[in-house]
Design brief:
The protein is an alpha+beta fold. The chain contains twelve helices and 41 strands. It is 21% helix and 28% strand. A hairpin with a 2-residue loop joins β26 and β27.
Length: 861
Amino acid sequence: MKTVLTSHVAAIAIVAACGLAHAGEAETTCTDEQSCATASLTRAIFGMLPVEHRERIERVFRHDADRVGDELARENGQDPMTLYGVVARYVDRDAFATFRPVHQKMLIAMADRAHSGDPVAPLCFTPDTDPRVAAAFDAVVMAAAANGNRFQQIGRWGPTALNPGGTDAQGETTTLTYSYAPDGTFVPDLIGPTGNSNLFAWLNGIYGSPDVWQPIFDDAFAEWGSLSGVTYVYEPNDDGSTLNTLPGESGVRGDLRIAAIFIDGDSGTLAYNNFPQDGDMVFDSGDGFFDNLAFNSRGFINVIQHEHGHGMGQLHTCPIERAKLMEPFVSLRYQGPQSDDILNAQRHYGDNYEPNDSRGIAFDFGQVGLEERALPQVASIDGFGDNDWYRFEALEPTSITAFLDVFGERYLDNPQTAFCDIGSYLDTRIQQDLTLLVTDASGNAIEFANAGGLGEDEELVALLPTAGTYYLRVTGGGPDLIQGYNLRFRLDTPIVIRGTGDSPDVLQPGVQTAVEFEIDQVGALDAEGLVLLSSANGEAPFTETDLSQLGNGNYCGVIPAFSAGDRPGLAVGRRVGSVIERVLPREDLLRPTVGAEVLIFEDDAEADRGWTPSATGSDGQWERGFPEGNLRGDPIRDASTSGNGRAWLTDVDPGTTNSDVDGGGVTLTSPAFDMRDGGRVELQLWYTNDDGASPGEDTAELEVSNDDGNSWTLVLQIGPDSPPTRWQEIAFDIADFVSPSDEIRIRYTANDDGAGSIVEAGLDEVRVFALRPNAVPDPACAGTDLTTDNTNPGDCGFGVADGEVSVTDLTFLVERWVGGDTSADLTTDGANPGDAGFGVPDGNVTVTDLTFFVEAWIGCS
């Protein structure tokens, strides 16, 4: 049986290897019906083999293919080393000598074109490509490109097939058409390799038909369109003219034409794409990378969108973190354009809501009732002088609360360098100081918001006194830089509570608290019958406390006393007949804290703070150390602001890149925390599981225990098949998951239960805040706490005890005593301690009452 099985495997191996070799030939890749059938049969047979046999065959075949490719590269020409002088400015001789001859010849051809002033196209590489090879090719591209714009840009599109009057002005929208070059279309010598396109035969061999693979391109372009001011239109015609030579023409060919040829097989180059005004895209039909259909062809989609990024006018960016689409190496850790890529595209073409630079062409939200609306995608002020206008129609008199949230993050960003291993920090949150304005239908200002500075969000609250059309306008202030933002707004019941309307963040246990509200009124609606709603746990039934009018739209409410550990909920309501209608907030209750929040634990992983690692897995145990950045899903830096310290990581092994979690789970458990009155936890987590043979199958769990680790409650699960978590801040309240106790622990577990997946996790920057009760007032001193500190007659809180005995309380009593107010009658006239009438009012306000209070006040203040 063993002999028969071995012979069978050998026979299949010969067929598969021959088929694979055939698939690697530049001119004969599935160009007719017979070869397509052979290729399909080969793939099917090869896929039946055990994994270890397939890997062995691929290793042998790729070795032979590399040898054949190198020999072909030397044919009909000199040894490329004799032409090193052509590329000397881009790569040193020793490094060039280690390149495969096929890459040497490609680099020389590109350098020749660049020196002649002809266009050259950037290439996309597999992650395992020698960084020196990628750096050399990009050095040629960078030398040929007029770089210097932000986000590593080159020029943008001007006239196009459907926008013949288009200009290359920054921030203007455009329309691009795309078409598929028919097989046989000649692909000229743009980077070295040339030939006739076999796009249809190649992709049909992988996906079966254009009905399957063309929608992948449609979706890839549509996503770029949803994130920028570019509109993409499929052009069904393509005349097969030589690629990279003629502009797009409606009904003839697209602005962006898509083709494929054999470039270098499995040697690292995946595709290339020219810059505007030529957006043609060419794939390597000989690279097995595209056979991987995991995550619904995520790798293929990312290559398409990366290459078209060049076709929009974007250059490569460093360092290599697998965090930006336009890094030189493709990644499977995410899908589609990331933050830097989005801002790059919007800098050139504006956002998806353009053109909206004036009221006349404002983006229209349409009719809006009492609801919340938001832009579905990020928008931006793309540079100095840009204005974004948004129109909506209110159906009744109402109030608007609008939020302008700054979009961006802090990350490393630099142009392409020799090894793409350096970068300076760029914070895209602090490029411009945004402002928000609401106007009426004629553009007259109603309310303006610019309280925050660079990197700060804005909030606007205004009354819209009549039904009708209104506008929101976003502008920037500062240098000619792009600033991304998210805009959302809601229309509410037309009573606005603002100014001091929010409850205090922290309430003292056992003491009622006065809070002031400023309430605007609209039309015939008024604020009569307003009440403060409160409960100890944020659930019904609510206690109703009338709001007292202070004048000029100001109202005062008194929050009842709560105990430490309560999680009170507050709202303002209005009596409508026998019903209480909530006014503010519209959805979530105000949730103050009872007690003082104290930082009881802080860990940046620079020292051992008592964490306990444990494992059921065979490899990847938690360790405290410096991130290695092996580009296999592990972080390249810690989560601190400086990014150069330690973190808790799954296996820190400088001796190997194979240091991920294997064969089970690894758990990191915290020390115990005393959080008997509640509190919250903040921490930074890292988790990736999108590399390897079976990505997206595993999970990581963050859990909390209130019984010293005997039982656990899930706080957060990451995965399966979810986007990776890269140093993402997680925060949660203990009481949302478990009852507070003095035996709180948290733990983070990364699991590897799927064969062949790469699981990497990290934990850093942990902060634990516990609630600690404030000192409850001494009952013996309650008689001396008469009013809120620093209040005067007419103020909210005047006459409301606040838990503090101060000079204000003494002044409060003296003024009433001087006026003969019966509230200053505290004791029987002439009574001393021990007398039956001591502390018993007798209906007379005398000096004994004043003495009685002062002596008690001195003992308590």
